[in-house]
Amino acid sequence: MDILDASGFQSVTRYAPVRIALLGMVRAFFGLLVAGMGGLALWVASAGEMTPKQPGDMPAWWMVLVGAGLSLVGLMILAGGLGRVLSAFASDCYFKAGREGIAVRLPRQRSFGRFSIEEHRMKWEDIEQITPRTIRVNMIPVAWELQIRQYGGKEITIKRYYFSASVKRMSEELAAIAARTA
Nearest-CA neighbor of 38 among 6, 1, 72, 78? Predict the structure, then answer.
């Protein structure tokens, strides 16, 4: 029996590996498109199609620079997407709460497609505030996250795509569990 279950912890929500894998596949596809555009720019520059014919034309070296930059960025996005697909199948990820506090285990993206498993355990008396956040770009919601701020300034951010429940539902569930333990 898991020590978390033995100490009265219950699951707040389920880990969502399919959502993470699909998000990684979309990111990898986008990375392939960007790298493909960079490769096309390099091909056009090397084929001699970009030789300046008039004084205001772009020099050929500029297209090589743009193509190399796009290819590099595309490969980085592709590696991040493939890393996210791999991290989706990390074992024993959870989001639990109980009498003691909160326990979270989830993968975190690192550079070049790598990931690591982060585990956080917090006692209720150490938690200052639990805040659901909506990230907006030009007033359009693009991402959701749950921020858990501890006394002393440490913040833990849990992105929406890691778990199946909405951020609002997770915060309500945490508030209900905290109220039962008080």
Answer: 72
Q: What is the mean pLDDT of the chain?
A: 87
d(CA 99, CA 158): 21
Give how far Cα 108 sits from Cα of 36, 83, 88, 103, 156, Å.
28, 10, 10, 16, 12
Contact in structure between 36 and 74 (CB atoms under 8 Å): yes
Burial of 119 (0-12, 13-18, 19+ CB in 10 A): exposed
Lowest mean pLDDT, pick from 43-52, 89-98, 101-110, 142-151: 43-52
Three-class SS state of 14: coil
Confidence class for position 147, pLDDT limits 50, 70, 90? very high
52 conformational bin, left if phi > 0, alpha if psi -120 to 50, beta if neither: beta
Residues 6+ apart with CB under 8 A from 127: 101, 102, 148, 149, 150, 151
* Cα dihedral 52, 57, 59, 63 sign: negative
Mean pLDDT computed over 73-83: 93
107: nearest Cα among 92, 128, 125: 92
Tell me what the mean pLDDT of segment 172-176 comes to.
Answer: 88
pTM above 0.90, yes or no: no
